[in-house]
């Protein structure tokens, strides 16, 4: 477990790297915003990795001094938040799903510190802002690809937890598939874990046994099952096509740079206030995108997807947001 009072080696290296890059760029350290991040999982985990990547990019530019703690247990989260605030962090970033009350209590006790937290709920004045991975738009597009790819008309979907952040992406994917293939059916299961590849793989195998020939890989492990059975998969949040060549049709990607950069600029300019940063995950802000493998996706499908993408970007098509738990078709 990583603690602020005894930061792990990676945290110390991140801090040192940020300082060295700032100094090397000739910028005054005082001008760099002090940013600390708290992660409940390793920085390699797909969702966390997008935040970490954006903060590292800001550190490399010399915009921030960056420290982080990973694998922080929920029972330690409040203490870690307080220690970062006490140590002078100007912006604290993290995810507070499952510990909303504790996190908001800390923010209230440190009104001069800016907090930007992944959350299912709203901001609280004066300093508690929220964000989320609103990549339902590229998820819809990836669903179009899956709907055209399935031959059995059965798509399997393995998710972590049935929370709004996951549910809305799965529903958007399902809507996209149904647009191009009204006959498609879905098998949906949640493994109640953010990281359990063996369990996700087992769930995927069961869906394939029930006829699924395309898999929605919301969790790690699903694509491994797809490779073993020779079926196709659609990725989520990060691009794993390099790890599964010939298997990943497309992925809806999340880019946190627009969200992070906006928050840093507001802190630096003295204008940070409680707000919902969710919009910065939309495609229009560069917060979401679709990547597809044109070697696996027919040209006419690529054209249809790109046309729909243009409609979204032009404001002519709005992907529906549905936070309800998705269920399997009968």
Feature tags:
alpha/beta, Rossmann fold, 41% helix, 2 domains, 330 residues, six-stranded mixed β-sheet, globular
Secondary structure layout plus pairing:
Blueprint: H1 9-24, E1 33-38, H2 46-61, E2 64-69, H3 74-86, E3 91-95, H4 100-109, E4 114-118, E5 128-131, H5 136-149, E6 154-159, H6 164-180, E7 185-190, H7 197-209, E8 214-217, H8 222-229, E9 232-237, E10 248-254, H9 257-268, E11 288-292, H10 299-313
Parallel strand pairs: 1-2, 1-3, 3-4, 4-5, 6-7, 6-8, 8-9, 9-10
Antiparallel strand pairs: 10-11
Could you please describe the fold and organization of this structure?
- It is a single chain.
- By secondary structure, this protein is of the alpha/beta class.
- It folds into 2 domains: 9-131, Rossmann fold (3-Layer(aba) Sandwich), CATH 3.40.50; 136-253 and 288-313, 3-Layer(aba) Sandwich (Rossmann fold), CATH 3.40.50.2300.
- The chain is built from 10 helices and 11 strands.
- α2 crosses α9 and α5 (136-149) runs antiparallel to α10.
- The protein starts with 8 loop residues before the first helix and ends in a 17-residue tail after the last helix.
- Residues 1-28 have low confidence and may be disordered.
Query: Based on DSSP secondary structure assignment, what is the total number of beta strands?
Result: 11
Number of domains: 2
Beta-strand residue fraction = 15-25%
**Silhouette:** globular
The CATH architecture assignment of the largest domain turns out to be 3-Layer(aba) Sandwich
Radius of gyration: 20 Å
Class by SSE composition: alpha/beta
Under CATH, the topology of the largest domain is which?
Rossmann fold
Helix content: 40-55%
- CATH class value of the largest domain: Alpha Beta
Number of helices: 10
Distance between the ends: 43 Å
Find the CATH superfamily of the largest domain.
Answer: Response regulator
Low-confidence stretches: 1-28
The run of helices and strands is HEHEHEHEEHEHEHEHEEHEH
Mean pLDDT: 91
- Main pleated-sheet profile: 6 strands, mixed
Give the neighbour order of strands across the main sheet. Answer: 7-6-8-9-10-11
